[in-house]
Specification:
Length: 371
């Protein structure tokens, strides 16, 4: 087949540099945090702190209170979206994306043990009752399940609560997610919290175009991995006339926006400490553009945690974590093998900057551990 038809072949480093540029990890920018959140189509937020670290690694002069203020002012929210996981997104994206992703929540509920516990139950009145309860005031799933079980006592309270999660766009309200604060995961509907109903669905075509802008070039399998949606081959077939077709070194077909940045594969990139659960590691079926299988086993733990990762020359070379006491904070970098002196010095400097961001006003230490 002629090269023109097969598409240009992109090597691993070319894919790496394209991803880092689109993820704002080649240099820090001075841009408002809400704009970064929207450009990245949200930050995964399974636990409260990672979105703050995610913005710190991308924005010059990032400060935790800037994102906390956006949460408190309801300009960004924490809501289950891609892959059914909690993401921090702009209010506009919360309302526009959830209708597109709704099929994956219904599919998840049907296949789960909770869904099996609800077989034979008419869910419409359950969902209506759940909406009334969470819009009366934000509620945890435990509380919501108990209240629903008072009306449906023959059903598992946890399953009833998860039915509400599956059918309603629930946001976690502050103080959950605020920097330096703690609070239960209490939920209300996105429309109630934001004071407006869900927008017209963005449409899967638009969502995939935004995905390519933030994560491309990508295969259909990559798109599915990021979103959790099925039926994406049909979406790509519709979009194909608007896309550039490429291939990786294994011959997989990749798609991209024609004018999207694809930097020189040999362009230098700085050391970065990437947040735990960062979508830069989670949004491709083939993750070798940023992380080898050897390091994937290090970063993805057996209990479902995705550790903070250390990028050297654009690729994962270790993990990081911060331990705190009242008087000090220690950032531990774990490696599979020692780094060259220049790289170790760059990692130490970046770790020191992260400690200043995460734990100001106490003593700091950076440690290296080699497995």
């Amino acid at each position: 087949m002629p090269e023109r038809q097969r598409g240009k072949v992109l090597g691993q480093r070319a894919l790496n540099r394209a991803l880092l540029e689109r993820q704002l990890l080649t240099r820090r920018r001075r841009v408002p945090p809400a704009r970064v959140v929207e450009r990245l189509i949200g930050l995964q937020a399974q636990v409260p702190e990672p979105p703050y670290f995610g913005l710190w690694s991308r924005i010059a002069g990032s400060r935790p209170e800037s994102l906390s203020r956006l949460l408190a002012d309801r300009e960004v929210v924490r809501i289950a979206l891609m892959r059914g996981t909690i993401h921090l997104v702009t209010a506009r994206d919360a309302l526009a994306l959830r209708p597109v992703l709704q099929p994956l929540f219904e599919r998840w509920l049907k296949r789960s043990d909770w869904g099996k516990a609800l077989v034979g139950l008419d869910l419409d009145p359950v969902v209506a009752a759940g909406r009334e309860l969470v819009e009366e005031r934000p509620r945890t799933f435990d509380e919501l399940g108990r209240l629903l079980a008072a009306r449906w006592p023959d059903r598992d309270p946890a399953a009833l609560a998860q039915a509400i999660r599956g059918y309603l766009p629930l946001v976690q309200v502050p103080p959950r997610g605020l920097w330096g604060r703690s609070g239960p995961a209490a939920h209300t509907t996105a429309g109630h919290w934001l004071g407006r109903p869900p927008a017209a669905a963005a449409g899967a075509d638009e969502v995939i175009l935004r995905y390519l802008a933030a994560f491309g070039p990508a295969s259909v399998a990559d798109m599915r991995c990021w979103s959790g949606l099925t039926g994406l081959r049909e979406v790509v077939a519709r979009l194909r006339p608007r896309l550039r077709t490429l291939r990786d070194e294994q011959g997989r077909e990749l798609f991209d926006l024609p004018d999207a940045p694809r930097p020189d594969p040999d362009s230098p990139v700085p050391v970065r400490l990437v947040a735990p659960f960062d979508n830069v590691l989670l949004s491709h079926d083939d993750r070798t553009r940023i992380m080898s299988d050897e390091y994937r086993k290090m970063i993805f733990t057996i209990n479902g945690i995705v550790l903070g990762s250390v990028l050297v020359d654009g690729f994962v070379r270790g993990s990081w974590r911060i331990g705190r006491t009242r008087d000090d904070a220690t950032l531990t970098v774990e490696l599979l093998r020692p780094l060259p002196d220049d790289d170790a010095a760059a990692v130490t400097a970046e770790a020191g900057r992260l400690l200043e961001f995460a734990a100001p006003g106490v003593a700091h230490e950076v440690r290296f551990v080699v497995r």
